Amino acid sequence: xxxxxxxxxxxxxxxxxxxxxxxxxxxxxxxxxxxxxxxxxxxxxxxxxxxxxxxxxxxxxxxxxxxxxxxxxxxxxxxxxxxxxxxxxxxxxxxxxxxxxxxxxxxxxxxxxxxxxxxxxxxxxxxxxxxxxxxxxxxxxxxxxxxxxxxxxxxxxxxxxxxxxxxxxxxxxxxxxxxxxxxxxxxxxxxxxxxxxxxxxxxxxxxxxxxxxxxxxxxxxxxxxxxxxxxxxxxxxxxxxxxxxxxxxxxxxxxxxxxxxxxxxxxxxxxxxxxxxxxxxxxxxxxxxxxxxxxxxxxxxxxxxxxxxxxxxxxxxxxxxxxxxxxxxxxxxxxxxxxxxxxxxxxxxxxxxxxxxxxxxxxxxxxxxxxxxxxxxxxxxxxxxxxxxxxxxxxxxxxxxxxxxxxxxxxxxxx
Length: 415
Hints:
Elements: E1 2-3, E2 6-9, E3 12-15, E4 24-28, H1 33-60, H2 68-78, H3 87-126, H4 132-148, H5 154-205, H6 209-225, H7 231-257, H8 264-282, H9 288-306, H10 313-339, H11 348-379, H12 387-413
Antiparallel strand pairs: 1-2, 2-3, 3-4
Helix pairs in contact: 1-2, 1-3, 2-3, 3-4, 3-5, 5-6, 5-7, 6-7, 7-9, 8-9, 8-10, 9-10, 10-11, 10-12, 11-12
């Protein structure tokens, strides 16, 4: 029994050869010849629909090149597909479609090559940058853009991959060596701090209080000038170092107090000198060292203030004012750190902004309390002789607190 694209012979169904292929058996008669031919015609209709669906998918999708392998597999399967129909137009359609997709892919790969070469230029520009944090983020973005960019022609693939990876590896190797160098330097710096603690212990053991005090001042300057180490390693050394120096100072102060008394002019000169030192600390950034030095100056000031001459009032007010600035800055630092876990990691500008917000809030409270104190002073009179003196002192103290905060606020605003 004949069919336009095949025939039945000895109850076997044959497909006529096409595109250089010989006739081949695709099945056998099951019930009758007509239904058998109908079955294989339906199979051809099914595979024709697959071809049409693929053509539609390619037309509707933006990433057309992704369908190339599916097209090739479908076309290859047509050569061995068991069905009765004209396969040649289907295969020719797929051949044309393959050429179309290959052209798109070629253009895409040319564009991908251009994009990747641009990314290589960016990586080359950044590879020797030493702003490790910001540049690391830029390289992460570059690598993501590289991954999202499609493939290039095989002949260029190895070259551009090597070029990009070399630039990326150069930066991260430089960063690794830098931080390894920092770690080594930190170890050397720790040895310096340990030696300063040893010298502090030796000075503390020295029976000559004045000599010990001179050594203490020298090694404290050396401590300030020493390099950076991780805070968790530096803090225990600092605790021991400051404890020893505080004891050295206390012993020296006791010996000085037990010595000959200063005359009024010498007292004022000493008070002016200490006030000037406190003023210098007030203009510095708050650190544990600054706070510790301020406490030492207060300790030096105390015996002088007990016998201060009458004309030392202005010096005394200045000393108290600058002292309060130092300790207000220290309090402000602790408050900022307690409110923001990452405060120490922020830039100086960000830290200043945070402190300004906190300081304005504290200033608002002080001003509110001052108004309340003034109102109470006016509304509630007392017959007690010391009441007005107490209220004046209280108002004066609040005004000084406000002046201190305004001083710090102005300093922060000018940064």
